[in-house]
Design goal:
The chain has 120 residues and is mainly beta. It is built from no helices and 11 strands. A hairpin with a 6-residue loop joins β4 and β5.
Length: 120
């Protein structure tokens, strides 16, 4: 089983920055990607940033140029650096690990979510 623990959320003024962290533990046979999602009240959960193991990072258009996803393999941690934050960025942010088990089945694991609130 894979466990994800998120941290770094909080309250920030518009134009400010936050860095979210996601530490993962447990056995992983194949890691396809680490991703960040967010969900605002009344909206669907959306993919914000994706970091495939075998490819380049991808971002939602709404955050492109402002957010950066990165990883520290030594610390088993994935980060989401969020700059130039806007009130529309207010949401609960979720870390997601997309993995394959030894039967090559795709599985998804989720963090508990961390609240990000951006004030005007």
């Amino acid at each position: 089983q894979v466990q994800l623990v998120e941290s770094g959320g909080g309250l920030v003024q518009a134009g400010g920055s936050l860095r979210l962290s996601c530490a993962h533990s447990g056995s992983i046979f194949i890691l396809n990607a680490m991703n960040w999602y967010r969900q605002a009240p009344g909206k669907q959960r959306e993919l914000v940033a994706a970091l495939p193991t075998s490819g380049r990072a991808n971002y939602a258009d709404s955050v492109k140029g402002r957010f950066t996803i990165s990883r520290d393999n030594a610390r088993n941690t994935v980060y989401l650096q969020m700059n130039s934050l806007k009130p529309d960025d207010t949401a609960v942010y979720y870390c997601n690990a997309e993995v394959r088990d030894r039967q090559y089945r795709t599985l998804n694991y989720w963090g508990q979510g961390t609240q990000v609130t951006v004030s005007s």
